[in-house]
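Section 5: illustrative case.
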């Protein structure tokens, strides 16, 4: 098969570290980012060509993305405490909102300048405005909400991803992650998703499905997931070999 060239921003994170080996074993070249020199070796062992860069350093980011000559850029950056400890969440919510707005803007610019075709970005599936459930991707987000999520940050990430021609933007609205590298071993919350199935959706999204938004979660009462199954060929049962 002909592999693509992929720039994976956030290759060391919960999803990124499951997605890197998936992309690599599917025959794609993966340039994977981390801010930490110490994690470069781990990324290499997962099958990525590591690059150390901070998404807020626009110049360095552009240089790194250009050097990778990507067909597709995948955005899996958040900045949350591993255990999601409430004590640390306030600052983490602010940092993640900044990543979703300013960080995504930097990544979009770098992707366009590098001539990438598609951008696949991580969003979340539990900030729909109250209304009848299950929520389809066309339902409005809860723009005025305050709380654990900065919804304005989510909206900024999605708008930048979907409205930055000539990039084909794909937004993956993930439910609540569980599994290796996450805060939870078991499904919990309203729309759970195993981290391997989350990574699998990103693998498929590099060349399946029209640009747009896809809910990615196990079957549940709150968000509809038929679109990802039908258009990406995705299934929530996917797991990496042990
Ligand atoms: N949908 C969900 O439920 C959801 C989504 C995401 C995360 N989480 C939860 O949050 C916790 C932490 O997850 P995680 O390890 O994936 O998240 P994370 O610690 O927030 O890291 C994600 C990735 O983003 C990168 N990153 C963070 N800030 C960056 C910056 N300024 N510039 C460039 N890269 C940056 C990290 O790279 P470095 O190597 O530089 O740190 C890492 O690769 C877990 O419990 C996870 O389950 C849940």
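Designed sequence:
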């Amino acid at each position: 098969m002909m592999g693509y060239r992929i720039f994976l921003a956030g290759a060391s994170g919960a999803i990124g570290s499951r997605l890197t080996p998936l992309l690599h074993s599917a025959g794609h070249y993966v340039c994977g980012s981390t801010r930490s020199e110490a994690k470069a070796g781990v990324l290499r062992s997962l099958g990525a060509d590591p690059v150390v860069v901070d998404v807020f350093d626009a110049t360095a980011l552009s240089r790194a993305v250009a050097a990778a000559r990507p067909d597709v850029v995948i955005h899996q950056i958040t900045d949350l405490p591993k255990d999601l400890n409430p004590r640390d969440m306030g600052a983490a919510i602010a940092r993640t909102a900044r990543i979703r707005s300013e960080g995504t803007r930097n990544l979009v610019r770098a992707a366009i300048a590098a001539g990438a075709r598609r951008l696949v970005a991580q969003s979340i599936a539990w900030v729909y405005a109250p209304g009848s459930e299950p929520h389809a991707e066309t339902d409005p987000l809860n723009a005025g909400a305050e709380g654990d999520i900065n919804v304005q940050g989510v909206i900024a990430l999605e708008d930048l991803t979907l409205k930055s021609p000539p990039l084909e933007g794909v937004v993956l609205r993930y439910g609540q992650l569980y599994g290796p590298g996450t805060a939870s071993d078991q499904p919990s919350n309203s729309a759970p998703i195993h981290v391997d199935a989350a990574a699998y959706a990103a693998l498929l999204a590099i060349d399946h499905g029209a640009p747009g938004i896809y809910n990615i979660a196990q079957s549940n009462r709150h968000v509809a997931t038929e679109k990802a199954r039908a258009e990406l060929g995705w299934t929530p049962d996917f797991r990496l070999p042990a």
